[in-house]
TrEMBL record:
Cleavable signal peptide: none
Record's keyword annotation contains Metal-binding: yes
GO molecular-function terms, A-Z: 4 iron, 4 sulfur cluster binding; DNA-deoxyinosine glycosylase activity; metal ion binding; uracil DNA N-glycosylase activity
Transmembrane segments: none
Span of domain Uracil-DNA glycosylase-like: 68-246
Organism: Haloactinomyces albus
Name of the protein this chain belongs to: Type-5 uracil-DNA glycosylase
Pfam families in the cross-refs: UDG
SUPFAM superfamilies assigned to the protein according to its UniProt record, in alphabetical order: Uracil-DNA glycosylase-like
Family, per entry: Belongs to the uracil-DNA glycosylase (UDG) superfamily. Type 5 (UDGb) family.
Gene Ontology BP term (one): base-excision repair
Length: 256
């Protein structure tokens, strides 16, 4: 709920395992995520970036906090990335917003009918996602885009609770990159689904079906190369490749 995080939860939150579990809705979870202070290194880095700023954004006020997921609370598709970019989501307060990776992702979401517009600039720009929610296993911008295993594990309860709250409608998860894939599998296996053994390996356009453990619907897991500049500039991930994965996700979610 980055479209206007309130001060409902004003105090710092240093225990994700306890505070995430207590969230009764996606909106409440988003509020709590935005005030997390559990990882000292990430807190220091995100705030330093927000103070120092990039020259091109020196007149802007950076978000400088953990970034909640973005999209409706009844999404059928979840898109899972890695972590906020220092001068992207850490600046704007919305997942994949304000950098070139987001430009590629939102263009593709728009092209396949999952977003209201092809551009994502800032909170309040009118962007709406349809049946899709974007999230990440790590909610703070990490130095050199590399969170530590400890930071990943500390942040895990936020993603676990988010998927739990999405459970009634969630049918497909599109994972951007191998890091997100490895971080997500333990979360899924400890929730409403069971990860097959041997565990499915990440790859572009890989598809794994996870059987439900709670009597509900199974979950379809799709792999996609990350929308990083390293991948999109070199052609490892093309717009057509990304659209194809998202179209497959729509079909599996039976969105028409």
């Amino acid at each position: 709920m980055t479209e206007g995080i309130s001060e409902l939860v004003a105090e710092p939150l240093a225990d994700p395992a306890r505070t995430a579990a207590a969230a009764g809705s996606i909106d409440e979870l988003d509020e709590r995520v935005a005030h997390c202070t559990a990882c000292p290194r990430l807190v220091a880095w995100r705030e330093k970036v927000a103070r120092d700023k990039r020259a091109a954004f020196r007149e802007e006020q950076y978000w400088g906090r953990p970034v909640p997921g973005f999209g409706p609370s009844d999404a059928s598709i979840a898109v899972v990335g890695l972590a906020p970019a220092a001068h992207g989501a850490n600046r704007t307060g919305r997942m994949f917003t304000g950098d070139r990776s987001g430009t590629v992702l939102y263009r593709a979401l728009y092209d396949v009918g999952l977003a209201s517009q092809p551009d994502s600039h800032r909170i309040g720009d009118g962007l709406e996602l349809f049946s899709t929610r974007i999230t990440a296993p790590v909610r703070c911008a990490p130095p050199v885009n590399k969170p530590t295993p400890s930071e990943r594990d500390t942040c895990r309860p936020w993603l676990a609770r988010e998927l739990e709250l999405l459970r009634p409608t969630l049918r497909v998860v599109v994972v951007l990159g191998g890091y997100g894939w490895q971080a997500l599998l333990p979360v899924l296996n400890a929730s409403a689904w069971r990860v097959p053994r041997p565990r499915p390996k990440f790859g572009h356009d890989v598809h794994a079906q996870l059987p439900a453990a709670d009597g509900g619907a199974d979950l379809h897991l799709l792999g996609c190369y990350h929308v990083s500049q390293q991948n999109t500039f070199t052609g490892r991930l093309t717009p057509e490749m990304l659209r194809n994965v998202l179209t497959r996700a729509k079909d599996l979610a039976e969105l028409g």
